[in-house]
Design a protein that fits this description.
iron, transport, repeat, about 0% strand, extended, Cytochrome Bc1 Complex, Chain D, domain 2, translocase, mainly alpha
């Protein structure tokens, strides 16, 4: 019988093998890189590390970002006022609302997203408080929103509504200034505004509004934030201006349209 020769394997691999090997290699190295990055981020940005910011850290942040206008020793410059006596509460308010650092000169500082983390803001505030003490953070009870809401409404109408509107919708002032809307302001920043008097707002000391009265006003504003208008659509809560405009456009407009339609039908 004739012997049948076995064909030797050529040893050539499929063209897809190299592609598969490259893909596996990329997935493997990418996984290692992602895991290492997550580990580094967890180490550097963990709450324990962030909470460790000290007054000295706040001093460095202040000198790097605020001293140009307010001076290395908080003494003020031609570009910014002195911070002696403003306290940590004013610093927290101005920086946490993005009003500081100031983006540009104008009638008043505009609110914008903050440029620092909460811990960095607290550290800078603690530094200012250590150098030039002033108003500090209130107790949790003052901010709990469980005060006398009707009394807070009356106090707000008497002391604040002429600028902020009776419903806290804000309003225009002179020379391009304005009183901001209060529909998304935190309880802490409501208190800080009353105590520190930012922008055009006066300072309400304990002789003007005691601590319980401030708590009542905060409770009233928080009530407005979390409860819908009982009268239906509020039209921005801007009062007679928006209501009159609505009546003029839709009310009188409807009457005119009906008159034109009746006249056209009669002809």
């Amino acid at each position: 019988m004739a012997r049948v020769k076995k064909r030797r394997a050529s040893g050539r691999r499929s063209p897809m093998a190299a592609v598969v090997l490259i893909g596996v290699g990329l997935l493997f190295t990418g996984g290692i890189y992602a895991g290492a990055s997550a580990a580094v981020a967890a180490t550097t940005d963990s709450p324990a590390t962030a909470a460790a910011l000290s007054v000295d850290d706040g001093k460095k942040l202040f000198q790097a970002n605020c001293a140009t206008c307010h001076g290395m020793d908080l003494q003020g410059t031609p570009n910014g006022p002195s911070l002696y006596g403003v306290g940590e509460l004013a610093v927290e308010f101005q920086v946490a609302t993005g009003r500081m650092p100031l983006a540009m000169q104008g009638p008043q500082a505009q609110q914008k997203p903050p440029q620092f983390t909460e811990d960095q803001i607290r550290a800078m505030a603690a530094y200012v408080q250590s150098v030039a003490p002033g108003p500090t953070y209130p107790s949790a009870q003052t901010l709990d929103g469980k005060g006398d809401v009707p009394n807070g409404a009356e106090l707000f109408r008497t002391n604040c509504a002429m600028c902020h509107n009776v419903s806290g919708a804000g309003g225009a002032l002179t020379e391009g200034k304005f009183a901001p809307a209060l529909n998304d302001v935190s309880a802490l920043h409501m208190y800080a505004a009353m105590v520190t008097g930012p922008q055009n707002m006066p300072v309400f000391g304990n002789l003007n509004l005691n601590l319980d009265e401030k708590r009542d006003i905060i409770s009233y504003l928080l009530y407005l934030q979390h409860n819908e208008s009982p009268g239906g659509y509020g039209l921005g809560s801007l009062g007679p201006v928006s209501e009159g405009l609505f009546a003029w456009i839709f009310g009188i407009g409807t009457l005119i349209g009906a008159t034109v339609w009746i006249t056209a039908k009669s002809n």
